Amino acid sequence: MTNEIYSRKSIYALSGDEKTALRDAFSVLYTTPEADSQSLESKVPKRYQQLAIILNEFGHYQWNDLLFLPWARAYFWWFEQALRSVSPGISLPYWDYTSSRAIAEGLPEFFTDETYVSSDGTTKANPLLLANYKFPFSTFREVKENTDLLSKAAKLIPEVNNQTGFIDFSLSVYPVDILSHSYIGGSSANPNSASYDPVFWFTHCQLDHLWWQWQKDHHDHEVPVSVKKTQLMPFTKESDEKSVILTGEDVLNTVELGYRYES
Ligand SMILES: [Cu+2]
After folding, report:
1. Is 42 a member of any domain?
2. CA 178 to centroid of ligand 1, rounded, Å
Protein backbone atom coordinates (compact mmCIF):
# COMPACT_ATOMS: atom_id res chain seq x y z
CA MET A 1 0.00 0.00 0.00
CA THR A 2 2.84 2.31 0.81
CA ASN A 3 6.56 1.91 0.39
CA GLU A 4 7.82 3.82 3.36
CA ILE A 5 7.09 2.30 6.74
CA TYR A 6 6.75 4.84 9.53
CA SER A 7 6.97 4.19 13.27
CA ARG A 8 4.60 4.83 16.11
CA LYS A 9 6.20 5.63 19.43
CA SER A 10 5.36 6.22 23.05
CA ILE A 11 4.14 9.71 23.94
CA TYR A 12 6.89 9.65 26.59
CA ALA A 13 9.47 9.45 23.79
CA LEU A 14 8.18 12.42 21.77
CA SER A 15 10.40 15.47 21.35
CA GLY A 16 9.01 18.94 22.01
CA ASP A 17 8.70 19.56 18.27
CA GLU A 18 6.87 16.27 17.75
CA LYS A 19 4.39 17.15 20.48
CA THR A 20 3.82 20.56 18.94
CA ALA A 21 3.28 19.06 15.47
CA LEU A 22 0.69 16.65 16.85
CA ARG A 23 -1.16 19.35 18.73
CA ASP A 24 -1.09 21.57 15.64
CA ALA A 25 -2.51 18.73 13.54
CA PHE A 26 -5.36 18.12 15.98
CA SER A 27 -6.15 21.85 15.90
CA VAL A 28 -6.41 21.69 12.12
CA LEU A 29 -8.80 18.72 12.27
CA TYR A 30 -10.93 20.72 14.73
CA THR A 31 -11.30 23.63 12.32
CA THR A 32 -11.64 22.01 8.88
CA PRO A 33 -13.81 22.29 6.94
CA GLU A 34 -14.05 25.98 7.66
CA ALA A 35 -17.57 27.17 8.38
CA ASP A 36 -19.06 29.15 5.50
CA SER A 37 -20.49 31.79 7.74
CA GLN A 38 -20.57 32.64 11.38
CA SER A 39 -24.14 31.48 11.81
CA LEU A 40 -23.37 28.06 10.41
CA GLU A 41 -20.38 27.59 12.68
CA SER A 42 -22.04 25.13 15.00
CA LYS A 43 -23.75 23.15 12.26
CA VAL A 44 -20.86 22.37 9.95
CA PRO A 45 -19.29 19.09 11.07
CA LYS A 46 -15.57 19.42 11.43
CA ARG A 47 -13.16 16.78 10.26
CA TYR A 48 -12.44 15.67 13.81
CA GLN A 49 -16.10 15.12 14.67
CA GLN A 50 -16.63 13.28 11.38
CA LEU A 51 -13.89 10.90 12.44
CA ALA A 52 -15.08 10.55 16.03
CA ILE A 53 -18.65 9.68 15.09
CA ILE A 54 -17.45 6.64 13.13
CA LEU A 55 -17.17 4.82 16.46
CA ASN A 56 -20.87 5.34 17.14
CA GLU A 57 -22.00 4.64 13.59
CA PHE A 58 -19.95 1.53 12.95
CA GLY A 59 -17.69 0.57 15.84
CA HIS A 60 -20.13 -0.29 18.58
CA TYR A 61 -21.72 -2.96 16.43
CA GLN A 62 -18.50 -4.91 16.61
CA TRP A 63 -16.95 -3.95 19.92
CA ASN A 64 -17.80 -7.03 21.86
CA ASP A 65 -17.03 -9.58 19.24
CA LEU A 66 -13.84 -10.67 17.60
CA LEU A 67 -13.71 -7.76 15.21
CA PHE A 68 -12.86 -5.50 18.13
CA LEU A 69 -9.10 -5.45 17.47
CA PRO A 70 -9.07 -5.52 13.63
CA TRP A 71 -11.79 -2.90 13.31
CA ALA A 72 -10.05 -0.67 15.83
CA ARG A 73 -6.72 -1.08 14.01
CA ALA A 74 -8.34 0.11 10.80
CA TYR A 75 -9.97 3.00 12.66
CA PHE A 76 -6.80 4.37 14.26
CA TRP A 77 -4.92 3.94 11.01
CA TRP A 78 -7.70 5.91 9.29
CA PHE A 79 -7.50 8.65 11.91
CA GLU A 80 -3.72 8.66 11.63
CA GLN A 81 -3.97 9.19 7.86
CA ALA A 82 -6.11 12.26 8.58
CA LEU A 83 -3.36 13.58 10.89
CA ARG A 84 -0.75 12.77 8.26
CA SER A 85 -2.76 14.58 5.58
CA VAL A 86 -2.27 17.69 7.72
CA SER A 87 1.34 16.98 8.66
CA PRO A 88 2.93 14.13 6.67
CA GLY A 89 5.80 13.47 9.08
CA ILE A 90 3.73 12.59 12.10
CA SER A 91 2.31 9.31 13.36
CA LEU A 92 -0.12 8.42 16.11
CA PRO A 93 1.74 7.76 19.36
CA TYR A 94 0.47 5.54 22.17
CA TRP A 95 0.02 6.26 25.83
CA ASP A 96 0.95 3.15 27.78
CA TYR A 97 -1.30 3.76 30.78
CA THR A 98 -0.07 0.51 32.35
CA SER A 99 3.56 1.71 32.46
CA SER A 100 5.18 2.49 35.80
CA ARG A 101 5.50 6.10 34.70
CA ALA A 102 1.76 6.37 34.03
CA ILE A 103 0.98 4.76 37.37
CA ALA A 104 3.34 7.19 39.13
CA GLU A 105 2.33 10.38 37.31
CA GLY A 106 -1.25 9.81 36.12
CA LEU A 107 -2.59 11.46 32.98
CA PRO A 108 0.36 13.15 31.21
CA GLU A 109 0.56 16.93 30.89
CA PHE A 110 0.46 16.44 27.13
CA PHE A 111 -3.29 15.91 27.65
CA THR A 112 -3.91 18.16 30.64
CA ASP A 113 -1.98 21.38 29.81
CA GLU A 114 -4.37 24.29 29.32
CA THR A 115 -2.26 25.89 26.60
CA TYR A 116 0.73 25.24 24.35
CA VAL A 117 2.94 27.26 22.02
CA SER A 118 2.16 26.29 18.43
CA SER A 119 4.76 26.07 15.67
CA ASP A 120 3.90 29.61 14.56
CA GLY A 121 4.91 30.85 18.01
CA THR A 122 1.47 31.75 19.30
CA THR A 123 0.02 30.47 22.56
CA LYS A 124 -3.13 28.45 21.92
CA ALA A 125 -5.52 26.23 23.81
CA ASN A 126 -4.16 22.68 24.10
CA PRO A 127 -6.31 20.71 21.62
CA LEU A 128 -5.64 17.48 23.53
CA LEU A 129 -7.41 18.75 26.64
CA LEU A 130 -10.91 18.68 25.22
CA ALA A 131 -12.84 18.73 21.94
CA ASN A 132 -16.31 19.70 20.82
CA TYR A 133 -18.80 16.94 21.33
CA LYS A 134 -22.35 17.80 20.35
CA PHE A 135 -23.10 21.50 20.26
CA PRO A 136 -22.93 23.17 22.72
CA PHE A 137 -21.16 20.47 24.73
CA SER A 138 -17.46 19.77 24.92
CA THR A 139 -15.84 16.62 26.19
CA PHE A 140 -14.92 16.53 29.87
CA ARG A 141 -12.94 14.27 32.18
CA GLU A 142 -13.32 13.09 35.71
CA VAL A 143 -9.91 11.59 36.19
CA LYS A 144 -9.65 9.38 39.27
CA GLU A 145 -7.62 10.85 42.11
CA ASN A 146 -5.36 7.83 42.27
CA THR A 147 -4.08 5.47 39.60
CA ASP A 148 -5.39 2.26 41.17
CA LEU A 149 -7.34 1.42 38.01
CA LEU A 150 -4.15 1.74 35.95
CA SER A 151 -2.35 -0.57 38.39
CA LYS A 152 -5.22 -2.99 38.00
CA ALA A 153 -4.85 -2.83 34.21
CA ALA A 154 -1.09 -3.35 34.54
CA LYS A 155 -1.66 -6.52 36.58
CA LEU A 156 -3.69 -7.97 33.68
CA ILE A 157 -0.90 -7.50 31.13
CA PRO A 158 1.19 -10.64 31.86
CA GLU A 159 -1.88 -12.82 31.47
CA VAL A 160 -2.87 -10.99 28.28
CA ASN A 161 0.59 -11.58 26.83
CA ASN A 162 0.50 -15.26 27.74
CA GLN A 163 -2.56 -16.03 25.64
CA THR A 164 -1.73 -18.27 22.73
CA GLY A 165 -4.67 -17.68 20.39
CA PHE A 166 -6.29 -14.64 18.84
CA ILE A 167 -9.68 -15.28 20.48
CA ASP A 168 -8.27 -15.61 23.99
CA PHE A 169 -6.03 -12.61 23.45
CA SER A 170 -8.95 -10.46 22.27
CA LEU A 171 -11.07 -11.44 25.25
CA SER A 172 -8.33 -10.86 27.78
CA VAL A 173 -7.16 -7.50 26.44
CA TYR A 174 -10.66 -6.00 26.35
CA PRO A 175 -10.87 -5.33 30.14
CA VAL A 176 -7.50 -3.51 29.99
CA ASP A 177 -9.03 -0.97 27.63
CA ILE A 178 -12.18 -0.62 29.73
CA LEU A 179 -10.07 0.23 32.79
CA SER A 180 -8.45 3.10 30.88
CA HIS A 181 -11.89 4.52 30.08
CA SER A 182 -12.95 4.22 33.73
CA TYR A 183 -9.76 5.90 34.94
CA ILE A 184 -10.26 8.94 32.69
CA GLY A 185 -14.01 9.09 33.35
CA GLY A 186 -16.41 11.74 32.02
CA SER A 187 -16.84 11.57 28.25
CA SER A 188 -14.39 8.65 28.07
CA ALA A 189 -16.61 6.54 30.30
CA ASN A 190 -19.62 7.01 28.02
CA PRO A 191 -19.58 4.91 24.81
CA ASN A 192 -21.39 7.66 22.87
CA SER A 193 -18.78 10.30 23.57
CA ALA A 194 -15.58 8.32 24.26
CA SER A 195 -14.09 8.84 20.81
CA TYR A 196 -14.50 12.62 21.03
CA ASP A 197 -12.09 13.00 23.95
CA PRO A 198 -8.71 13.47 22.22
CA VAL A 199 -7.03 11.10 24.70
CA PHE A 200 -9.05 8.26 23.13
CA TRP A 201 -6.75 8.01 20.11
CA PHE A 202 -3.70 7.59 22.31
CA THR A 203 -5.10 5.04 24.76
CA HIS A 204 -6.48 3.03 21.87
CA CYS A 205 -3.20 3.21 20.05
CA GLN A 206 -1.80 1.45 23.12
CA LEU A 207 -4.38 -1.31 22.63
CA ASP A 208 -3.18 -1.75 19.06
CA HIS A 209 0.39 -1.64 20.32
CA LEU A 210 -0.36 -4.49 22.75
CA TRP A 211 -1.80 -6.51 19.89
CA TRP A 212 1.24 -5.76 17.70
CA GLN A 213 3.62 -6.87 20.49
CA TRP A 214 1.60 -10.00 21.06
CA GLN A 215 1.52 -10.80 17.34
CA LYS A 216 5.32 -10.50 17.25
CA ASP A 217 5.63 -13.18 19.94
CA HIS A 218 2.83 -15.48 18.77
CA HIS A 219 3.12 -16.07 15.07
CA ASP A 220 0.38 -18.66 15.10
CA HIS A 221 -2.37 -16.30 16.11
CA GLU A 222 -5.30 -18.41 14.90
CA VAL A 223 -7.45 -15.65 13.52
CA PRO A 224 -10.84 -17.13 12.55
CA VAL A 225 -11.65 -17.09 8.83
CA SER A 226 -14.81 -15.11 9.58
CA VAL A 227 -12.71 -12.32 11.08
CA LYS A 228 -10.28 -12.35 8.15
CA LYS A 229 -13.05 -12.13 5.58
CA THR A 230 -15.26 -9.52 7.25
CA GLN A 231 -15.27 -6.01 5.82
CA LEU A 232 -14.19 -3.31 8.25
CA MET A 233 -16.71 -0.62 7.39
CA PRO A 234 -16.27 2.20 6.44
CA PHE A 235 -12.49 2.02 5.94
CA THR A 236 -11.02 1.70 2.47
CA LYS A 237 -7.70 1.15 0.80
CA GLU A 238 -6.59 1.80 -2.75
CA SER A 239 -6.28 -1.35 -4.81
CA ASP A 240 -5.76 -1.36 -8.58
CA GLU A 241 -6.72 2.31 -8.69
CA LYS A 242 -10.03 1.83 -6.97
CA SER A 243 -11.16 2.03 -3.36
CA VAL A 244 -12.02 -1.24 -1.68
CA ILE A 245 -13.23 -1.80 1.87
CA LEU A 246 -10.54 -3.15 4.19
CA THR A 247 -11.07 -6.65 5.53
CA GLY A 248 -9.79 -8.23 8.73
CA GLU A 249 -7.05 -9.92 6.74
CA ASP A 250 -5.77 -6.58 5.43
CA VAL A 251 -4.94 -5.31 8.91
CA LEU A 252 -3.30 -8.35 10.49
CA ASN A 253 0.15 -7.12 9.49
CA THR A 254 0.62 -3.43 10.32
CA VAL A 255 3.43 -3.15 7.77
CA GLU A 256 0.84 -3.62 5.04
CA LEU A 257 -0.90 -0.53 6.41
CA GLY A 258 2.41 1.31 6.37
CA TYR A 259 3.41 1.45 10.02
CA ARG A 260 5.09 -0.44 12.83
CA TYR A 261 5.89 0.27 16.46
CA GLU A 262 9.40 1.14 17.56
CA SER A 263 9.28 -1.63 20.16
CU1 LIG B 1 -11.78 1.80 24.40
Report:
1. no
2. 6
| Number of domains making up the chain | 1
Quote the ligand 1 centre to 171 CA distance (angstroms). 13
User: By C-alpha distance, which of 259, 241, 262 is closest to 83?
Assistant: 259
Give me ligand 1 centre to Cα 37, in Å: 35
- Cα–Cα–Cα angle for 7, 241, 84, nearest 5°? 30
Q: Say if residue 136 is preceded by a cis peptide, omega within 30 of 0.
A: yes
Which CATH number goes with the domain that contains 230? 1.10.1280.10
pLDDT higher than threshold 50 for residue 2? no
| pTM beyond cutoff 0.85 | yes
Going from the Cα of 20 to the center of ligand 1, the distance in angstroms, rounded, reads: 25
**CA pair distance 112, 129, nearest whole angstrom:** 5
Domain that holds residue 251: 6-35+57-261
pLDDT in tens, 101-150: 999 999 999 999 999 999 999 999 999 999 999 878 999 999 999 999 99
Residue 16 has pLDDT above 70, yes or no: yes
**C-alpha 181 to ligand 1 mean position (Å):** 6
b vs e for 39-75, b when ≥16 Cβ sit within 10 Å of the residue's Cβ? eeeeeeebbbbebbbbbeebbeebeeebbbbbbbbbb
What pLDDT is stored for residue 241 in this prediction? 85
Phi, psi of 202 (to 5 degrees): -85, -35
Residue 22 contacts residue 14 (beta carbons within 8 Å): yes
